[in-house]
Structure formats: structure tokens, C-alpha cells
Structure prediction request, 332 residues.
Amino acid sequence: MTERTDREPAIRQATALWQTGPGEVQLQHQALGERQSGQLMIRNMFSGVSRGTERLVLEGLVPESERERMRGPGMEGSFPFPVKYGYASVGRIEDGPPELRDRAVFVLHPHQDLFIVSEEQINLLPDALPPRRAVLAANMETALNIIWDAGILPGDRVVVFGAGVVGTLVAYLSNGIAGTETLLVDSNPDRSALAAELGLAFSNPGDLSGEFDVLINATASANALEAAIAHAGMEARIVEASWYGDRSVNIPLGGAFHARRLSLISSQVGTIPPNRASRWSYKRRMAKALELLVDTRLDALISGETAFSELEAAYPRILSSPDTLCHRIRYS
Prediction:
């Protein structure tokens, strides 16, 4: 039976960002249907632009083999174009059960001002987490999964290649493990200030020396992966955490790769690692990611903010700028 409220009209209009062609986007209006029983209407406050993945989508570089796996909650259309894509929205429950109304929530949903989701899709924000920072939730969830895949233990020497949002969050979490020596590496010297803000050791790739127990690549660069192999100690673990879209890369598996008995694994947030899957649900993992975001220093990962009404013009520029970390979209 359809659940209705007196203040909810049968048809409401929403505006969403669509990727319509290579490098092209458009704000489009669409009608929302009635909210059904078990569903909530969310009024967006903020959403976050994930530069790496959304740039691949905008360039039409999602491989055909991955198009079904890449579909996210709330996505419409199909790859390559047109498609409505994104996955970091923070809003308030505008309509739903009385006990949930006006609660701030994180939802995996594209850039859209008003939308309807099931109750199972929402993640309530901790009281100590400002909605403005919660746009980092999907990135923190990814970083947490990478830490699990990496199997970092107290005392390990860890190097993370790539001071983007995910790489920096991985280094931040690793640095919090007792006794670890964590180093964040990036070719952009300006990222040293970001590392310092979070209490992380930083290095330029050319200055990297020594061997490490765990090496994590979050650059989508074959050069960084090659450097990880070169600096891996005996039986070290190398985690490839970046996604290359439809690109092929060459990696040096000759030389000392076999003699050192190195492990090279991939990490992807769509699957919980097997040694945790029996205890951790996606809901529990996201709740922990939100909890980990209460540190005010993480605001340093928000590199800019744009009004949703201006996103159509600004979106390609946001994705193309190497200075973009997490770019926040503000809704009226």
C-alpha cells in the first residue's frame, strides 16, 4: 500500500547532473514519483566529486567488461553516455517516518538536489560529524578496505604512493596503527603541506630510499607501481588500489620480483576482504568510515566548493585540475 503524507505532492521535480558525452555535462530536470512505504525523500545538502573515477566516466573510459559492475545506487542511463553518475551525497530526510525526519544522512547517490531512496540505503551521520565533511565518507570507506586488504600490522614500514584523497586517507589510517612507520609519496611538492596537516611523513618519489613491508599504489600510474616493486622488501605485500579504466600498463615482473617472493594484489571497495566478510556487512563498514571522519584535520582534504547551480559549467574544470582533492558541491 502506498504511504502518502498531506504535505507531499504526487509529483515533484528534481535536478541532476548528467554526463552526456566526452567532456560534456548537463543539469537536467526530472520528475520524482510518489514516495512509497519503506522509502525516504532526501533533500541534498552537499555532494562530493570523486575526481579519479568521475573523470574516467566523463572521458568515456569505463571498459565494456566493467560497465555492469560500475553501476551504482541511483545511477540512471548507461555507460558510456548518457549517464547520471556519482556516489557521495549528504542530505537531510525531508519526508519519511517521524523518527527519521530532518536527520542528516550519507547516501551513495549521484549529484542531485532531491531524490528518493529506500531506508536501507541511508547511513545516519554521527552527531560529532558535520555534514560538510561527510562527503568524504565513500573515500574513507575505500581507504578502510585498502587497509584491510594490505594487512598492515604494528611495526610495519608502509609507503603509500599518491597523495590524492584515497591515498592520503590510507596513509592517515596506517599512521594510526601502533608502531608503524608510514610514508606518503607524491610528485606534487605542494602535497607536503597536506601531509603535514595530517601529521604524515612525506617524500618526493625521487628521494625515496630503503625497503618497505607494505607498499600501496593509489596513483593509477605504472611508474609508481614500478617504484613499489623496486622498494619492496623480502616477501613484502604490494597493493594496487587505483583503477586504470581501459588502459593497459607494463610492470616489471623480472629481476628480483620472484626471488623476493613479492605479493601483488588488487583492492576494490566493492568487495569486503574474505577474512572479514563473515562479520562485516557493507552497512557496518560505512558506519565505521563515518565514525573515522570526526577528526577536524580531515577538512584539509576538501579542496574547493561550488554551488550546484554552477556545476554544469564548473564540472569539467574541477575534474581536469591536478589541484582537486575532494571538491564539495553545495545545494541551496
Q: What stands out?
A: The mean pLDDT is 95. The two ends are 33 Å apart (CA to CA). The longest strand covers residues 39-50. Residues 137-150 form the longest helix (14 residues).
